[in-house]
Amino acid sequence: MQELLAELKEKIIETLDLIDVTPADFNEAEQLVGGKLGIDSIDVLELAMMIDRDYGLKIDNKQLGQKVFATLGTLAEYIHTNRTR
Amino acid sequence: MSGGRIFVTGMGIVSPLGRGVREHLDSLKQNRSGINPLSLFPASPGNVLPAGEIRGFTDGTGLPRTHEFALAAAREALAGREVVPDAVIIGTTTGGMPLTESLLKQNERRAELYRYHSTSSVAEKCAETFACNGPVITVTNACSSGSAAIKLACELLRSGRARRVLAGGADALCRLTYYGFNSLQLIDPAGARPLDRSRRGMTVAEGAAMLLLEAGDAAPDGALAEIMGGGLSCDAHHPASPHPEGAGALAAMKAALADAAIDLHDIDYINLHGTGTVDNDLSEAKAVRALFGKTMPPLSSIKGATGHSLAASGAIEAVVSAIAIREGIIPATTGCAEPDPSLELIPVLEPMEKKTGTILSNSFGFGGNNACLVLGNPEVNRHGRSGPASFRFEILGSACITGAGDLDQTIAKLKEGCECSGILPVVDISKNLPAREVRRLKRLPRLALALALGSRDAAGSEPASVFFGTSWGPLSETNDFLTGLYESGEQFTSPTDFVGSVHNAPAGQAAIWLKATGPNITATGGDRSFEEALLAAALTAAGRETLLVMAADEHHEILSPLFDPSVSAAGLPADGGGALCLRKTDAPSGMTIIHSFYERARGPGTVSSLISALGGTERIRAAHAALFAGIPAAERAEGEKQLADFISRSGFSAAIIDYRPLIGEFGSASAAAAAIATRLMKDGSIPASLAGGSERALNGKGILMLGLGTYITAIELIS
After folding, report:
1. Domain total of chain A
2. What is the pTM of this model?
3. CATH class in words for B5-376
């Protein structure tokens, strides 16, 4: 799980081009979207595409998205449980 | 001058509901849907979604579908009328993309095959086909393009500068829009169900509608409807989501009612934008409720039947509104089974027979671009209204970006006698932009933002509206989206690149940054994009407000040489743009700019028209001490001939600056040239390096800017 969290931090920074964010800036229990990292609704869709591509997991509706992308922790948990690759 | 009422004297339509007005009337009466599983191209596994496709359509012209749809609709609009439109104004976002994306997929590198890629080629093809030699404007305002084009046409007619305008919208299904909207999770897998409580999104569609609009005091024989007015606004809120309270939608509806000089209670039916996305329908419902309160007229959305044909939709719905007025029907909200109670609206669910005198038709798009139209019964007596009498603006501030840098750096290079064409590093373009906030923006939106903020700062005044010209739109985003799509076997696409690839994305960004909630128009007129943006501003700018008129283009190493024949002819990469902050004026003080001429070149006669539009040879010599000539490299032979003809006939002996070799070959070079010209006017002279060896004082005279080649344009800068 720790490994997945570390991997996700790197992937999020790279996918969203968060130029002034480092892995140390993430707190897995904090709000992921609309929080201090500056991640917004278009970024969430970009992350959904990355998760589909890299973990074989579709997050294609708003209700599920809101649950999964609540925090980095919920995202990692969801991927850990459901990943197909 | 013509009267101030605008009549629809011809109309044509092609959509998933059929071809022609008659088939649409039948489809609407029978509440038929044209939405079916996509068959136009093979969608990747798991991605076969419903689409509003016009099946079996081809005229065998070899033209892209967008062009074929536009021509088919225009042919119907002009059928039986031996008239030539004075202008053509078309909204389109896809242009030649249906063909281009297939060619790119095959890695096709023959530039001539891309000659119909440009969005502007749709209107140009229509103008050529129907022998129109007057102005052509291409509006690329995402999903409100068609309505915005009709609004511009109304103002051109009201101004008296045209008597007949062919106006409308056209878009064709393509991978870019199909996969793009899917990447935003905005497609309803069950087909669009506008206003339904279970709605999950829109259905991407295609089609075209064209209206022949004529100005007059009273309805001419055979008038089908009247365009009573239109209103434009910008959310200035988000690149792809509507304002949550519908603030921009409300402003556009109010502006349309005010423009039509009618009261709320006069509206008999609202044709909603109603795409079926959760957010659009919710924000539109809030706006409609805020405006109409308890006196809500019947309302419906036809997008559950037609799908959402993007730039065509506003024009299609204008034609449907005209049909509704003529035939006494109100179309159904096809696909809506159980209205969403949270919207607090009662949509019309089955087609209704009901006389409607006046209809409000809504269109909203990406970039927060809103356009609403009011259509009425032409037989009712009422007064029209006159349009803008003057196309003149005071210049409050200017900015440019060239290969040399900003306006100061560009002027310094030019004074040294050096060329300033080239590609400015993106880090230099972004020097005044906060890095985190522009992280998602690629080259073109950064160029546009830097220009917008630069000219705003130079003017010391906040623009309320934005008029943006671009020949090719955001090429980096377009290329990256399609590359990602093809490399992943059409499985994965970037929503960020899709949102960014929309031609009006940079103008939407500028509006957000400037909080500019007034009209926001992106004109994509090829080498005349800046001139078209200035014309759009002249037609729709409000009173004493500050507005931003700018144009920019980015060089893309793969796409630019394929799309732009002047880039391949010159062989030297260059890009940039220019921006002016302006204010409308009838009593000029200080430096002013005026859009003076725009016609298709058709031999020596056009140069004569140009000279006469500029007030004759004596006035030209008295008013101007320099001429900036913009001749695209691909049209050099023709352009040089026109320039020589103009000089010899006007007896113009002042400094001639052939600026494209200096600034570079890119579509919006004329915008950079305009900013440079304003600076030289301020300095009072043309430097020796540009004036053929010795400095030439302007002595209070102005600078004439000519665009030459296939079309001839004139802009005058006057002290």
Report:
1. 1
2. 0.97
3. alpha beta
